[in-house]
Amino acid sequence: MPHLLVVHHTTSPATQELLEAALAGTRAEGLDAVQVQVRPALAATLVDLLAADGLVLGTPANIGYMSGALKTFFDLVYYPALTAKAGAPYGLYVHGNSDTGGAVRAVEAIAKGMGWQRVAEPVTVIGMPDRAALDRVWNLAATVAATLLG
Ligand SMILES: Cc1cc2nc3c(=O)[nH]c(=O)nc-3n(C[C@H](O)[C@H](O)[C@H](O)COP(=O)(O)O)c2cc1C
User: Fold this and answer.
1) Triad 131, 120, 58: Cα angle to 5°
2) What's the pLDDT at 150?
3) What CATH class has 3-148?
4) 70 phi/psi in degrees, rounded to 5
5) For the chain, which end, N or C, has fewer CB atoms within 10 Å of the first or last residue's CB respectively?
6) Spacing, Cα 20 to ligand 1 middle (Å)
7) Nearest CA to 85 among 47, 122, 141?
8) Which of 11, 19, 71, 97 to mutate to test the pocket of ligand 1 (most atoms within 8 A of CB)?
């Protein structure tokens, strides 16, 4: 059974809505065979990553970068899992209130360093998410999960 790991830093009602949309996407029709682990970034471990076949990452943009929480996760796993998950599909959503570009670039650079495969465009949401934004996050997560089923 393929394992999808959702690593998120959720700090507010807006980011909670995005997380819930992502989790709903992982439960889309036809994805029952995907086992989903949900981990706040500060509680996600190397063991969680090693058990995963793909990832959904979610973070706010903070001071032009990903959250410190998601960066901490990467700091913990980068070298120990540097090649272990090469080719793993991943998707990213970023929430911000002005500019999410730096956060996206930072996550993509690290994911590229670990050889992960981006299987959907990163979803960026500014301000309170509307229906379209939630749908984009839902689709992102469903796409990553579907990739695990081949
Ligand atoms: C210290 C700090 C730095 C932030 N820096 C950015 C930033 O660089 N770009 C951005 O778009 N939003 C930035 N934000 C806004 C957060 O991304 C936003 O507060 C978070 O996504 C939660 O959304 P909410 O404020 O709508 O609840 C920052 C927030 C804080 C607290």
Assistant:
1) 65
2) 84
3) alpha beta
4) -70, -35
5) C
6) 19
7) 47
8) 97
